[in-house]
């Protein structure tokens, strides 16, 4: 216990100690934390669906019909008609042969990598990949090599030297920087070298593309083998869970071999019903994506007039880099004093020396909310001079 206490104390001294907020309200652009009402710019509820009455009603109706738990894994007795319908609708939406539900994106990435690689393979990872992709590769018996961020040229050199390239793994939209992977170049490389491409589109699915199908639609790339798409259902769709989409043989292989699918209780069917309602909204209400893009453009135009230089990201993820951890924490504290919640993101979540405010937008935000954020950032700039 003394060792644990020493480690915790050290984390506090290094300004790396993590603490949880206890929300008293539903997810939304305005949330209650204790006695505070805060304007939130840190949620991944990009389309504002987490508290949508239609999604809530579908969840309630699903609970009335199916109960509140699945009871078993999909392969025992937990696979309901709601799960099956959602898988079919997700596959149709993204243009894949089939889709398979997982409890979380973390478990989906773990399941795919362990099912498709062995000790003779090499897995290639972007250096800024999400922790789930990094951990998934580490838990396989394959050799893992990491290439410089979004550097398809360097990856091509590494692939040429590999004895048996098994899989390339990348975020499609990088969660901390908001930039998009060079998916067209990566697709060319996997075809050339006979590897798989696992693209984690957690932050692009529902948000990017004319129809919200994600990063591949946004870039005009058809979703076809050997591409494996992983999408999550708790961000733009506002509910919970994840899915993997690809060719029919891939999905059947995952059903047979993905341990995080085989040995996990299925999502509650009511959750699947809520996701189905959310997916219908994503299909029908393209104005949400248009509004989101307009809010991002408004913020970027305003931020450029301040001392903060926006990154190249055009997605709802708009980081402001402070570098030092203390500086990012202080900026977060000052914003909260003005009623705005943007927690500081620190190492090891981001590389050393790149602590930041990770500002995210929702279609539920209003232009006045963005103005208020920019005013607070302007005050922050003035206080730093």
Automatic annotation (TrEMBL):
Pathway: Cofactor biosynthesis; biotin biosynthesis
EC assignment: 2.3.1.47
Record-annotated Aminotransferase class I/classII large domain positions: 38-377
Binding site for substrate: 18, 130, 349
Residues binding pyridoxal 5'-phosphate, per UniProt: 105-106, 175, 203, 232
Superkingdom in the source lineage: Bacteria
Matching CDD domains: KBL_like
Necessary cofactors: pyridoxal 5'-phosphate
One Gene Ontology term from the biological process aspect of the record: biotin biosynthetic process
Entry function: Catalyzes the decarboxylative condensation of pimeloyl-[acyl-carrier protein] and L-alanine to produce 8-amino-7-oxononanoate (AON), [acyl-carrier protein], and carbon dioxide.
Protein name as it appears in the record: 8-amino-7-oxononanoate synthase
Organism in which the protein naturally occurs: Candidatus Muproteobacteria bacterium RIFCSPLOWO2_01_FULL_60_18
This protein's encoding gene: bioF
């Amino acid at each position: 216990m003394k060792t644990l206490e020493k480690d915790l104390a050290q984390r506090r001294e290094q300004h790396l100690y993590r603490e949880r907020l206890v929300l008293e309200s539903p997810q939304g652009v305005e949330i209650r934390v204790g006695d505070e009402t805060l304007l939130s710019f840190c949620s991944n509820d990009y389309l504002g669906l987490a508290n949508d009455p239609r999604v809530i009603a579908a969840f309630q109706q699903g609970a009335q019909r199916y109960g509140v738990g699945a009871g078993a894994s999909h392969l025992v007795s937990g696979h309901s008609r709601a799960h099956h319908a959602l898988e079919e609708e997700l596959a149709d939406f993204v243009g894949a042969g089939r889709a398979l539900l997982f409890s979380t994106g973390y478990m989906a990435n773990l399941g795919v990598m362990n099912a498709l690689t062995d000790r003779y393979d090499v897995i290639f990872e972007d250096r800024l990949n999400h922790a789930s992709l990094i951990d998934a590769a580490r838990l396989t018996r394959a050799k893992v090599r990491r290439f410089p961020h979004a550097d398809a040229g360097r990856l091509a050199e590494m692939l040429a030297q590999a004895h048996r390239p098994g899989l390339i793994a990348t975020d499609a939209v990088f969660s901390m920087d908001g930039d998009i992977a060079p998916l067209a170049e990566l697709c060319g490389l996997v075809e050339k070298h006979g590897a798989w491409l696992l693209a984690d589109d957690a932050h692009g699915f529902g948000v990017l593309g004319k129809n919200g199908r994600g990063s591949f639609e946004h870039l005009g790339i058809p979703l076809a083998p050997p591409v494996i798409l992983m999408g999550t259902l708790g961000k733009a769709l506002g509910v919970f869970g994840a899915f993997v989409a690809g060719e029919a043989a891939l999905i059947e292989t995952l059903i047979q071999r993905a341990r995080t699918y085989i040995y996990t209780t299925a999502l509650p069917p009511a959750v699947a019903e809520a996701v189905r309602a959310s997916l219908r909204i994503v299909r029908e209400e393209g104005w949400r994506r248009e509004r989101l893009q307009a809010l991002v453009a408004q913020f970027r135009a305003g931020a450029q007039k301040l001392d903060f230089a926006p990154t190249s990201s055009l997605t709802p993820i708009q980081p402001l880099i402070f570098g030092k951890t203390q500086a990012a924490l202080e900026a977060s504290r000052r914003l909260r004093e003005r009623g705005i919640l943007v927690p500081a993101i620190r190492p090891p979540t981001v590389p050393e020396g790149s602590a930041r405010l990770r500002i995210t937008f929702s279609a539920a935000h209003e232009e006045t909310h963005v103005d208020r954020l920019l005013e607070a950032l302007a005050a922050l700039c003035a206080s730093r001079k």
